[in-house]
Amino acid sequence: MLHRDNRQVYGSPRIHAALRMQGETCSRKRVAKLMKQEGLQAKIQRRFKRTTQVDVLAKKSPNLLQQNFASATPNQRWVADITYVATAEGWLYIAAILDLFSRRIVGLAMHDRMTADLVTKALKQAIKHRQPKKGVIHHSDKGSQYTSSIFQKELAINHVISSMSGTGNCYDNAAMESFFHTLKTEHIYFETYKTREHAKQSIFEYVEVFYNRKRSHSTLGFLSPMEFEIKWSKQQNVSLRGVH
């Protein structure tokens, strides 16, 4: 069943889109009606809190996105942020980088401390896997991890342009907020982690196996980030690093 095979996170719009891709002819209203009759719905969503703190003395970068989250090509605009998850051992902090072109997570790092090294590892992973050309924009909030000298130096070495949200404006990084909301409300809130290592494995599996490769996005024509990139690369007749 599509609902079960997609971890019970799909509501009627995504189930309807998946059925159409399989060649089934049915209306969205009928899908919604049948799901209601069977007691099927997307997992319950809950709110979560932000984590990063601003270093008022650190040098900030200008906001180059201005809430424009469109990207015509891969590796043009990346957005990044940090969140956290509770385990029996204590907090586990998660740093992620998302490519606005396909909404794919291209950098992911996890640690028991929320440091500049955490976000630097996520950046290094994104650069290694994607090998972007000079000038990709990296957009984040003004958290001390992102304004740190170690992180800003890594951006400069790799010719990545730093962009930062306005103070206290969560809408300036809405795409990244949306991903963390999805991660938590579809996966993390339904898990109990005894150890940080357990949490790491669980979150990595959700992101790499399900979210990047399988989970459909309405903004991508109900394709997954990976499927969207593969389709684009075939249409453009270009090779995109890390697609397959």
Written description of the protein model:
The structure is a single chain. This protein is of the alpha/beta class and 244 residues long. It has two domains: 2-37, no CATH class; 77-236, Nucleotidyltransferase, domain 5 (2-Layer Sandwich). Helix content is 38%, strand content 15%. It has a five-stranded mixed sheet, sandwiched between helices. Strand 1 and strand 2 form a beta hairpin. Helix 2 (12-21) packs across helix 3. The two termini are 26 Å apart. The mean pLDDT is 85.
Secondary structure topology:
Elements: H1 2-5, H2 12-21, H3 28-37, E1 77-87, E2 90-99, E3 104-111, H4 116-130, E4 137-140, H5 144-147, H6 149-157, E5 161-164, H7 174-186, H8 196-211, H9 225-236
Parallel strand pairs: 1-4, 4-5
Antiparallel strand pairs: 1-2, 2-3
Helix pairs in contact: 2-3, 4-6
In short:
Helices cover 38% and strands 15% of the residues. With 244 residues, the protein is α/β, with parallel strands linked by helices.
